[in-house]
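Supplementary Methods. Inverse-folding protocol.

Structures were first reduced to a C-alpha cell string of length 401. This string, shown here, constituted the complete conditioning input.
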C-alpha cells in the first residue's frame, strides 16, 4: 500500500509539491493568526507585569485605566500609602498619542511616572541602554520598538524631550511601544489645550455674564487657575506587603477612599476578557475560514488525482485488491499532502510572517502540535470524497477502457 501511494506521488510529484506549498502558505497564515492572538494576550500580561503593581486604584465604577478613561485626584496616593498593608503607591497617567521625531510620527503610549527610583510602581523595570529619568522635566525613556535612539529629541504636545534610556518589551495592550516621561509633564500633555482653544474659552467666558468676576478681565481666577494646574491622574499603582492579601487591601481602599480597586486577576480579566474579546472573535472566524479553505483545497486536489487514475483503480479491483488497500492509498496521499503543507507553513510562519508582522506574534510549541493534528484530521476528512469516487469504480472499466 505504501509502495502504491509512493509510486503515484512520484508519478505526479510536481503537481503534488506545488499544491503542498500553496497549502503550506495557508497553514502558515493560520499559525500566524493563532500567534497574533497569543501575542495580544502576552502584550496585556506584559503591560500588567511591567507596571510593578498588585492593585490598580481608578475612578469609581470605571474599568480604567487601560480599558476606559479614569480620572482621580493626584493626592489620593498619600492617603493610600498610609493604609495598612500598602508597601508603595504611585500616581500614573497613560495617553495614547502620536509622538513626533524629525517630522515622523510614532504611535505610542505615553506614561507619566512619579519621581522615584527603579522599583517604583509604573517605572520600567529594566533598561537595555542609557539611564532612568532623573530630572523632573523633559527627559524620556522609550521602548526600542518605537525606533527611538539615545539622544533623540522627540516632541510630545508642545514640549520636546531627550531620550535618555531605552527599554525592551514595554508595550500597551494593543502592542504600541511605551514612552515614559515625568508625571507633571504627562499631566500637562494629557489635559493641555492648544492656543486657539484657550482663546476661544476666554472669549466665551468674557461673553458669559455669570463669569464677570474680579481678576483677569473676562477670565475668572478659577478658570485661569484650572488652565495652569492639573490635579488629576488616571490611576494609583499600589504594591502590597507580603503579609497581606491584595484582595483585603483592595476592599479597604475601596471602602475608605470611595474608589474602584482592581487586583491583578481582575485587571487581566478586563484586558483579555473585554478589551481583546472582539479581536479574539475576529481571529477565531479567520481561523475557521482558513481551515475550510484548506479542507477544500485538499479535497479538490486529491479528488482530481483520484479521477486521473480511475482506470488503474479499476485494474486493482479486477485483480482482487481489497477496498481498504485503495482507501489507504488515497488517504496516505492526502496525509502526505498535508504534511508537506504543514512543514512549509511552519517554516513560513516562523521565518517569514512572524518577523515582518507589525504586531507581536507569539508562536507557541503547543499551538504547532495542535495545528499538526488538526491538519492530519482535515486531510483525512477531505479525502472522503475521493474515497467514495474510488470505491464506486466498476472493475469492468479496466477492460472496457
Amino acid at each position: 500500500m505504501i509502495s502504491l501511494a509512493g509510486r503515484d506521488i512520484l508519478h505526479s510529484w510536481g503537481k503534488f509539491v506545488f499544491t503542498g506549498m500553496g497549502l503550506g502558505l495557508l497553514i502558515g497564515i493560520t499559525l500566524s493568526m493563532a500567534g497574533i492572538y497569543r501575542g495580544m494576550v502576552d502584550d496585556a500580561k506584559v503591560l500588567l507585569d511591567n507596571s510593578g503593581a498588585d492593585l490598580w486604584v481608578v475612578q469609581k465604577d470605571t474599568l480604567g485605566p487601560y480599558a476606559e478613561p479614569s480620572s482621580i485626584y493626584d493626592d489620593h496616593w498619600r492617603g493610600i500609602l498610609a493604609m495598612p498593608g500598602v508597601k508603595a503607591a504611585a500616581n500614573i497617567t497613560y495617553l495614547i498619542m502620536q509622538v513626533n521625531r524629525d517630522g515622523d510620527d510614532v504611535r505610542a503610549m505615553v506614561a507619566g511616572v512619579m519621581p522615584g527610583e527603579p522599583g517604583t510602581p509604573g517605572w520600567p523595570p529594566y533598561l537595555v541602554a542609557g539611564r532612568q529619568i532623573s530630572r523632573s522635566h523633559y527627559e524620556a525613556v522609550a521602548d526600542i520598538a518605537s525606533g527611538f535612539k539615545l539622544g533623540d529629541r522627540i516632541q510630545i504636545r508642545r514640549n520636546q524631550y531627550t531620550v535618555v534610556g531605552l527599554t525592551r518589551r514595554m508595550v500597551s495592550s494593543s502592542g504600541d511601544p511605551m514612552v515614559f516621561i515625568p508625571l507633571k509633564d504627562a499631566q500637562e500633555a494629557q489635559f493641555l489645550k492648544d492656543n486657539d482653544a484657550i482663546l476661544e474659552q476666554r472669549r466665551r467666558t468674557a461673553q458669559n455674564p455669570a463669569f464677570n468676576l474680579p481678576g483677569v478681565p473676562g477670565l475668572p481666577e478659577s478658570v485661569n487657575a484650572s488652565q495652569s494646574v492639573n490635579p488629576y491622574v488616571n490611576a494609583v499603582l499600589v504594591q502590597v506587603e507580603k503579609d497581606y492579601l491584595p484582595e483585603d487591601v483592595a476592599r479597604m481602599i475601596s471602602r475608605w477612599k470611595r474608589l474602584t480597586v482592581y487586583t491583578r486577576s481582575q485587571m487581566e480579566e478586563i484586558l483579555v476578557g473585554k478589551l481583546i474579546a472582539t479581536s479574539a472573535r475576529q481571529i477565531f472566524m479567520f481561523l475557521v475560514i482558513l481551515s475550510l479553505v484548506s479542507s477544500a483545497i485538499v479535497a479538490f486536489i486529491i479528488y482530481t488525482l483520484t479521477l486521473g487514475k480511475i482506470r488503474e483503480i479499476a485494474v486493482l479491483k479486477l485483480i482482487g485488491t481489497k477496498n481498504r488497500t485503495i482507501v489507504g492509498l488515497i488517504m496516505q496521499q492526502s496525509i502526505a499532502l498535508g504534511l508537506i503543507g504543514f512543514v512549509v507553513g511552519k517554516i513560513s510562519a516562523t521565518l517569514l510572517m512572524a518577523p515582518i508582522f507589525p504586531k507581536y506574534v507569539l508562536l507557541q510549541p503547543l499551538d504547532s502540535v495542535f495545528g499538526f493534528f488538526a491538519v492530519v484530521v482535515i486531510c483525512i476528512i477531505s479525502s472522503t470524497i475521493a474515497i467514495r469516487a474510488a470505491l464506486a469504480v466498476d472493475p469492468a472499466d479496466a477492460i472496457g477502457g
